[in-house]
Amino acid sequence: AQSVTQLGSHVSVSEGALVLLRCNYSSSVPPYLFWYVQYPNQGLQLLLKYTSAATLVKGINGFEAEFKKSETSFHLTKPSAHMSDAAEYFCAVTSHVRSNTGKLIFGQGTTLQVKP
Amino acid sequence: EAEVAQSPRYKITEKSQAVAFWCDPISGHATLYWYRQILGQGPELLVQFQDESVVDDSQLPKDRFSAERLKGVDSTLKIQPAELGDSAMYLCASSRLAGFQETQYFGPGTRLLVL
After folding, report:
1. DSSP code of residue B84
2. Where does residue B28 fall: left (phi above 0), alpha (psi -120 to 50 degrees), or beta otherwise?
3. What residues have CB less than 8 Å from B40, skipping those under 6 apart?
4. According to the model, what pLDDT value does residue A96 have?
5. For chain A, what is the radius of gyration of the CA atoms?
6. In Å, how far are A13, B89, B110 from B10, measured between CA atoms?
7. In chain A, which residues have their Cβ closer than 8 Å to the Cβ of B102?
8. DSSP labels for chain A?
């Protein structure tokens, strides 16, 4: 069964500083991994996804993530934080139980705070 | 840009009452998902539709929850009777096809408060 663990429920950075949000996955098969962002009282917006084409995945708003099979990790980074990046971030993996299902299994989320 | 529509955005109800949520997926998307997100947690799948058929409802509390997608387009999720523990955000998502590589696009959600 697939699962996702996000290390750190709350991360605080200064504006302009590096953002690093950690995600580790567990999967018995090659995983498909996603990062979503959620602003208060809104739905989830896709930041980026890994589908085995390339280990370094670039997403929207300057975010990127690197798939490391040896570490079972898919950490999200951004070189310079902006105030507008303050939100909740979710890492997710899709279930491979059946090929016709696309169930997303989410981590608990990480709240990113950006200080001026 | 096409979006997933949901209504209402907010719903307050008393326990034992019935509530219903509506979702209109992106046009042409065959697969529709309902997730529940409890405050402070990640979303969890309640039910997945492929066209009008249920593909996965293993996590749907069937004694009180029901979902339908009669014409394979929009969908309704119902709770009857509502309980205090049902307070959560209910998110609808759609994807072009079913499958673990497909991107799911989420609507703005319906926030439910049960008093």
Report:
1. G
2. left
3. A108, A109
4. 62
5. 14
6. 32, 9, 5
7. 102
8. --EEEEE-SEEEEETTS-EEEEEEEE-SS---EEEEEE-TTS-EEEEEEE-SS-SEEE-GGG-EEEEEGGGTEEEEEESS--GGG-EEEEEEEE--SSTT---EEE---EEEEEE-
User: Using the beta-carbon criterion (under 8 Å), do B48 and A102 form an inter-chain contact?
Assistant: yes
Instruction: Indicate yes or no: CB of B40 within 8 angstroms of CB of A109.
Output: yes
What per-residue string of b and e applies to B24-59 under the rule 16 or more CB within 10 Å gives b? bbbeebbbbbbbbbeeeebbbbbbbbbeeeebbbee
Do residue B104 and residue A95 have CB atoms under 8 angstroms apart? no
Q: For chain A (length 116 residues), average pLDDT per consecutive 10?
A: 90 97 88 92 91 88 94 96 96 73 89 96
> What pLDDT shows up at residue B16?
96
| Contact between residue A63 and residue A45 where contact means Cβ atoms under 8 Å apart | no
> Do residues B51 and B75 make contact, with C-beta atoms less than 8 angstroms apart?
no
- Token pair for residue B31? 């697969």
Q: How sure is the predictor about B72, in pLDDT bands with cuts at 50, 70 and 90?
A: confident
Give the other-Cβ count within 10 Å of A24's Cβ. Answer: 17
pLDDT (0 to 100) of residue A80: 97
H and E: helices and strands count for chain B = 0, 11
Contacts of B90 in chain A (CB under 8 A): none
